[in-house]
Design a protein that fits this description.
By secondary structure, this protein is an alpha/beta fold. The protein is built from 19 helices and 14 strands.
């Protein structure tokens, strides 16, 4: 039975959405797929509101005939009509449309794009190879913390390489080595494709700049290979972004993919049927690229040209923000009892780490701050499952700017914060992923937050009045006189647990009032 309503009743405002300019949509017309991604708003850490792709194969016949295939064009135009309706229903405020290799190279590409303009009522930006490489490089800058390596973006029609270090974009090159292009040029013969790959990659002299650095793999086919590798090693965290593998291990795996029938690959059910024929070509390109770069490892990216385009739309101040901290702060606003209290935990935990003598690198400090901001996002869950649910939310969140050991740190700190230092319910693989150093700091942070929550009840304006110091006899927690009734066995026990981490004695006392 529907709730009572009248035409004059205003719509209920969704409390789970953040204010700002948006929604903003990007339609990416690629050589293999066309995709609509709607983002909640224009921000440093954009949340995907809606995401849909259609594998049209626009570039399938371009290399051979010079034209976009009629069937592929019809599929793409049907997708555009659907995308238009979806954007209207969502209330998209700004629609960006970009097109890449197939549309820019086909003789009938301009005609096709005019039909797109007519259907959607928006202009289409046709990216040159250099522009496409630049936008993908921007995605790496926006999505990886202190990126340093060679970015490779494998599409259906082309392959772009760019040197990226920090916020600097170096030299770049685009090659006719997309998956569909290679499949067509080789007449679907993997042996011929191997020769073409070697020949065309020899033109990419900038790959020599990748020695001992990271290779950032962008593109759907490469992500599919990364996903297959996760299943191959029974990886515990099925989050693709910044999943890293040693170059040697990935080369060996790619060589197995090349010679194995796709239907026999472990985890093939997670790869769309339309993409499976491109797997050996993607594996070939990835293996050869890693050999030429002599990279130490490959990092898979869940973002690409669309996110680079969105990042380009931000002003300089917004671009300079840390995406991990921004996303954590937004989750605190959406889900914590008090975002202000979450901010206060950052200063409180810094004091705790100093007292316990736990040093931090700059990267560890940002992880601790993010973990504090996320510390109370699970309060609505059933008390018996808050630790487990918080761990899952944090570990699988759509964060960028964080590697997998960092994710494990955030997840463990939130788990321990609710469940204490017990790890009986934890997968040992998650702790192994974090490493001993991250695990120790996650425990220390969690125990400090457990003390803070018992004193403040998750409300602001309290923790800056509570003092934690290291005295000769050990750890001393001092409460202001108006909070003296908070003293008791439960608080003492939590302070004891925190002190034990540093092999210290402990005491809880009330501030002396000399008035």
């Amino acid at each position: 039975m529907m709730a009572d309503s009248t035409p004059d009743t205003p719509p209920t405002i969704a409390q789970g959405r953040l204010p700002g300019f948006g929604p903003v949509a990007v339609i990416d017309i690629g050589s293999n797929s066309v995709r609509l991604v709607v983002y909640e708003r224009l921000t440093r850490s954009p949340s995907v509101f809606f995401n849909e792709k259609v594998l049209c194969g626009l570039g399938r016949s371009v290399a051979e005939t010079g034209f976009l295939d009629e069937e592929s064009v019809n599929l793409a135009l049907a997708a555009m009509r659907r995308f238009r309706i979806l954007c209207e229903q969502i209330g998209v405020k700004q629609l960006e449309i970009i097109a890449t290799a197939a549309a820019r190279e086909a003789e009938n590409g301009a005609e096709f794009l005019e039909q797109v303009r007519t259907q959607l009522g928006s202009e289409v930006e046709v990216l040159t190879g250099r522009q496409e490489a630049h936008r993908s490089a921007l995605a790496i800058i926006s999505g990886f913390h202190n990126a340093d390596g060679i970015m490779g973006d494998m599409g259906g029609g082309s392959l772009e390489f760019v040197d990226v270090k920090g916020t600097n974009i170096g030299s770049g090159i685009t090659l006719p080595l997309g998956g569909l292009r290679l499949q067509t040029d080789a007449h679907d013969d993997v042996a011929v494709a191997a020769k073409l790959t070697k020949q065309r990659l020899s033109e990419a002299s900038l790959l020599a700049q990748g020695v001992g650095r990271i290779f950032y793999a962008v593109g759907g086919t490469w992500r599919a290979i990364g996903r297959l590798y996760m299943h191959h090693i029974d990886y515990p965290l099925l989050v693709m972004h910044d999943f890293r593998v040693s170059a040697a291990d990935m080369i060996a795996f790619c060589e197995d993919v090349i010679k194995t029938d796709s239907q026999d690959l472990d985890g093939i059910g997670f790869v769309s049927r339309a993409r499976r024929p491109l797997l050996p070509y993607g594996a070939m390109l990835l293996a050869q690229t890693l050999k030429l770069t002599q990279a130490k490892e490959v990092a898979f990216s869940a973002i690409g040209v669309r996110e680079g385009h969105l990042y380009q739309m931000l002003d300089a101040a917004e671009q300079s923000r840390d995406p991990l901290i921004s996303a954590s702060r937004e989750l605190a606003v959406l889900r914590a009892r008090s975002p202000e209290h979450a901010e206060e935990l950052c200063a409180w935990s810094e004091t705790v780490f100093e007292v316990l003598g736990l040093d931090e690198t700059a990267d560890e400090t940002r992880l601790r701050i993010a973990a504090c901001l996320l510390a109370d996002i699970g309060w609505r869950a059933h008390p018996d499952y808050r630790g487990e649910q918080s761990l899952n939310i944090v570990a699988h969140a759509a964060f960028v700017g964080i590697d997998h050991p960092g994710r494990a740190y955030l997840a463990l700190s939130n788990f321990y914060r609710h469940s204490g230092s017990s790890s009986n319910e934890l997968s040992p693989k998650l702790k192994e992923m974090a490493g001993e150093r991250h695990d120790l700091r996650a425990r220390a942070l969690a125990l400090s937050i457990r003390v803070a929550m018992l004193v403040s009840a998750g409300m602001p304006g309290v923790m800056d009045r509570v003092k934690l110091t290291k005295e000769e006899d050990g750890l001393l927690l001092t409460l202001p006189t108006d909070l003296q009734d908070l003293m008791g066995p439960r608080l003492s026990n939590r302070v004891r647990q925190l002190a034990k981490l540093g092999s210290l004695d402990y005491a809880v006392e009330v501030e002396v009032d000399f008035d």
